[in-house]
Specification:
163 residues, mainly alpha
Length: 163
C-alpha cells in the first residue's frame, strides 16, 4: 500500500523549504570551515581533508537518523534516509554552486585529479552493477566501502599540498 501523492501546494512548499535549508547549510559549513582547517592543520594532514570532513558533516544528522533506524531494524527507512540525504546534498549543492558561478566576479573551477577520477568511475561501475540487477548484495556494499577507504587513504597519504 502506497501513501497518497502530495498535493501541488505541498510539493511546492516542500521544494521551497528544501532550498531554504540548503541556503542555511552553506553559511553554516562556511562558518565551521575555519575550525576544521585548524584541526586538520594541527595534525599535519593535507588541505584536501578539509573538504572531506565538511562533506561528512553536512549529511551527518540524516546519517545518525539512518543508524538509529537500522538499529531499530527498519532497514528501508534507514536506506531512504541515508541515500536521500546524500542525493539531496549532492543534487542541490552542485547546481547551487554552478548557478552562483554565473554571478559577476565569481569563477568556478572543478578540479578532480586522476586518482579520484579512477575511483569515481570504479564506484559508478559498482553502483551500476548493483542497481542493474535489481538486488543489492553485501559484497557490492563492501566493495563501495573499500573504494571509499581507498579515496580517503589517497586523499590523506598521497596529497602533496599540506598546511
Amino acid at each position: 500500500m502506497h501513501a497518497a501523492a502530495p498535493t501541488t501546494r505541498t510539493a511546492a512548499l516542500s521544494a521551497l523549504l528544501l532550498m531554504g535549508c540548503l541556503g542555511a547549510v552553506v553559511p553554516l559549513a562556511k562558518a565551521l570551515a575555519p575550525s576544521i582547517k585548524a584541526g586538520v592543520a594541527s595534525v599535519g594532514a593535507p588541505k584536501a581533508l578539509v573538504g572531506v570532513v565538511i562533506a561528512a558533516v553536512v549529511p551527518s544528522p540524516e546519517g545518525l537518523a539512518a543508524l538509529r533506524a537500522a538499529r531499530a531494524n527498519r532497514f528501508q527507512t534507514s536506506l531512504n534516509l541515508a541515500i536521500g540525504s546524500t542525493l539531496a546534498s549532492i543534487g542541490l549543492t552542485v547546481p547551487a554552486v554552478a548557478l552562483s558561478s554565473l554571478l559577476p566576479g565569481l569563477t568556478l573551477t572543478l578540479v578532480i585529479d586522476p586518482k579520484s577520477t579512477v575511483l569515481l568511475f570504479l564506484s559508478l561501475f559498482v553502483t551500476g552493477t548493483s542497481l542493474g540487477t535489481g538486488r543489492t548484495k553485501v559484497l557490492q556494499g563492501a566493495a563501495l566501502l573499500v573504494v571509499f577507504a581507498t579515496y580517503l587513504f589517497t586523499a590523506v597519504a598521497l596529497s602533496e599540498e599540506r598546511f
